[in-house]
């Protein structure tokens, strides 16, 4: 028997598809439904390693957590990891299979993957009561429709009803809803069941006349109006962008450069605030590594790109990147390389993660990622890095600072460490630390021990909260997403869609209508 299904599409990228999908998943699992997430094709530098050693998008790993199931490669069969403006690494069923240009991918390779994608979806639907699928970008990208395997292409082939999400906070949501439907073929339109308004601020009654007009124009209903909520953008798909904001548990108003205009961040016992600066390197990957730091009361995390922004930082993080050599050049061009070396010499804390660990070393031999051969690193840590063609994808477990640590590794670079104090798989010299392990800071005991070391080196009277559980905070966020769906969407109608498909007889909207 095939389980029910739904495709959550969006009028644009960043309309809220990922969080809406997670919210629907969490609502369903709380109703006793056995549910799984699915995204046929994901473009993101934010990835995760499953227990079987497969690389998938972190958004799908987060959605699997919303479903209370273990993530697998079936949930994200195709992952594209941008390596620049024109090319991406293609990860198929969790393993890299090569680099392709956008033209090469959309010119034929993408369509050949449709069979694999449909097989994965069919396997999930044969195992679960419901599969909630997430689209990508907009289903009305008509220039890509012929080769589409993630929006209407998958909906048509799998007979999935489609719910279109629109971000009303951006403006123009009614035109976006109408235009999205009007640009689709009659066969695609027949699957678009209706709309979901996201990020609404104000009195819903003021919106209702527009929703009524939209139904009159399209013949399709709106399944809910979700209110704007701060702090729900968890494990976003970053694409090529840099998260332009400061992160902290308390939040605050943030400028485009990521500097606080106002914030009420405070330490749990009224002591010093700990400031963390993250170098916003090109092709930054897995910037979610610092989310666990931002979850600590009294810790402020900001993304920076100028050396003077490191001056008041108690800890500087050099994060992962899909372009290690390019990131190294960027650090030098910006003057951040000299600032990092100066910090290390002064015994001020620096943490390098994955690609950020590699740039802190002495030498890099890269014939795989940049194909630049021998490149000098910053020379802060005693290691040499050689890029291997086979990617390391593991879920290591270990101990550091007397605490249990779990993480995951995603890298081509193989590090040969020749000195310093062992630190996870990397090393420590003075107050400079380096490791390939993503996610290690989500281990609560280790994070607190690390922050105590940082605070002591920085001369801060900061004491991390003893009761902060990152896993519990994540569960709390997922429950808030489930609450949004349960309280602000027509859940009975949503379940009918999932169980029975799009309503029959939905009208066709010719492009350009109404006159």
Automatic annotation (TrEMBL):
Residue intervals of the CobQ/CobB/MinD/ParA nucleotide binding domain: 7-240
Superkingdom of origin organism: Bacteria
GO molecular function term, any single one: ABC-type vitamin B12 transporter activity
Alphabetized Pfam families for the sequence: CbiA, GATase_3
Keyword vocabulary terms for this entry: Cobalamin biosynthesis, Glutamine amidotransferase
GO biological process: cobalamin biosynthetic process
Coiled-coil region(s): none
SUPFAM superfamilies recorded: Class I glutamine amidotransferase-like, P-loop containing nucleoside triphosphate hydrolases
Biochemical pathway: Cofactor biosynthesis; adenosylcobalamin biosynthesis
Domain CobB/CobQ-like glutamine amidotransferase: from-to ranges: 275-444
Keyword Nucleus attached: no
Residues of the active site: 354, 438
InterPro entries given in the database record: Class_I_gatase-like, CobQ/CobB/MinD/ParA_Nub-bd_dom, CobQ_GATase1, CobQ_N, CobQ_synth, GATase_3, P-loop_NTPase
Region (Disordered): 237-265
PANTHER family, sorted: COBYRIC ACID SYNTHASE, DETHIOBIOTIN SYNTHETASE
Similarity comment: Belongs to the CobB/CobQ family. CobQ subfamily.
Function (record text): Catalyzes amidations at positions B, D, E, and G on adenosylcobyrinic A,C-diamide. NH(2) groups are provided by glutamine, and one molecule of ATP is hydrogenolyzed for each amidation.
HAMAP family: CobQ (MF_00028)
Protein name per its UniProtKB record: Cobyric acid synthase
Protein species of origin: Streptomyces capitiformicae
Lineage: Bacteria, Bacillati, Actinomycetota, Actinomycetes, Kitasatosporales
